[in-house]
Amino acid sequence: MDSIELAFAGAAEHARMLRVGEVTAPALTDLYLERIARLDPELRAYRVVLADSARAAAEEAQHRLDDGERLPLLGVPIAIKDDVDVAGQTTTYGSSAHGPAVSKDAEVVRLLREAGAVILGKTAVPEMMIWPFTESVSFGATHNPWDVSRTPGGSSGGSGAAVAAGLASLALGSDGAGSIRIPATWCGLFGIKPQRGRVPLAPHDDAWCGMSVNGPLTHTVEDAALFLDVTADKSMPGPDGGFVGAVSRPPNRLRIALSTKVPPLLTAYRDAEQRAAVHQAGAVLRELGHEVVVRDFDYPVKAVYGHVLPRYFRGIYDDVRALPHPERLDSRTRGMARIGSMFSDKRIARIREAESEIAARVGAIFGDVDVVITPGAATGPSRIGAYRKRGAVSTLSLVAARVPYQALFNATGQPAAVVPWGLDRNGLPLSIQLVGRPYDEATLLSLCGEIEADHPWADRRPSVS
């Protein structure tokens, strides 16, 4: 396997190769560090690269491998989004308003290290993780490896760019309103927003009023399943044989709904290629033996404006209020926080009490189908700097029209994943989104694995790779 193929092999394959000695942990880490040094000055996927500690961790991992130790990610180099704590490093949230370096790993990082992962660095985010594009006054713009004039998405944009360009085996992201699924879509990756509570958020529990979750951006479905097996809360119901086992089992015949409907009151771009991908996927799934119907979610009229957006704005306000230097924030971020301050504790409590009603109405479709497929986005990624001179509300209205399909499922809490689906007329990745029943990542992973086997994507490489 040559160096480029090795860089794109993915976490599960890397773990197998390390166990049998086809590659050493120091060599694999050095491969990524060399690629980061060569390619990341253009992409700016990483906010900080932890070369010395990564090399030390790789050496230790190799000693453990040589001693016969077997851990799921032993020696596998990964990246961590810069809203997640890594001991000894600052968690900047894409801003110079942050506090000092933290002394303790976040729980998800602790679990990844416990599984043997080597941390390469922390990936770039937009300020306070607000936007589906990764640009900030403090750290500049992150570029899409498929077209460096475009954003990779956000807020896990650095994580998406890093994995897409072969600068990490997998990357940790977080998703409060689509922030894993959007960069996965625009970077040609697999990404899954797990069930709320599946992957620990501590010490940032209940982020964005319960809408945010941690999850992976990966080359393959198996890579994501491996991540979940390592990090999932063992007290929650999961599949027999783990999530990797679920990927390895073809699903039973499923009833799958196709939906291109946008939630009410949202304005959206109407890119025909994005909608066509859904129906192309339906044709493939029929050939695979599944029953496919066209059916839409029964979206409550006020679900987004009355339920999702208040939690989003208030979550931004709560995060800003906790910063030691909020005066250093960009004016647009301060504007978003001011809007969030208008939602009182009592109002947010009432909104959250209504979540079960919203979730039941959205979830009623699963009385008749097993999975719903929507477009991954309404259109492709924006150009770098497209919103630079705009205010908070103007920016939000424009970017939301590109990605209307994600945020509602953060409010309901159920799992949703995106699968790459070819390239658009500009040579940029397309995807489809698969939405599952609550707690049923296993069915999503099994179906995504079947799609991957029939419609593979991992051999596609962006121009910057």
Short structural summary:
It holds the Pfam family Amidase. With 465 residues, the chain is α/β, with parallel strands linked by helices. The chain is built from 17 helices and 13 strands.
What share of the residues does DSSP label as strand, in percent?
5-15%
Q: Tell me the name of the CATH homologous superfamily.
A: Amidase signature (AS) domain
- Helical run tally: 17
Rg, Å, rounded: 20 Å
* Average pLDDT taken over every residue: 97
Low-confidence stretches: none
Classify the secondary structure makeup into a structural class.
alpha/beta
Note the main sheet.
11 strands, mixed
The general outline is globular
The termini sit apart by: 16 Å
Helix content: 25-40%
The CATH C-level class name: Alpha Beta
The tally of domains stands at 1
CATH architecture: Alpha-Beta Complex
* CATH topology descriptor: Amidase signature (AS) enzymes
H/E element order: HHHEHEHEEEHEHEEHHEHEHHHHEHHEEH
Number of strands: 13
User: Reading side by side through the largest sheet, how are the strands ordered?
Assistant: 1-3-2-6-8-7-12-13-11-9-10
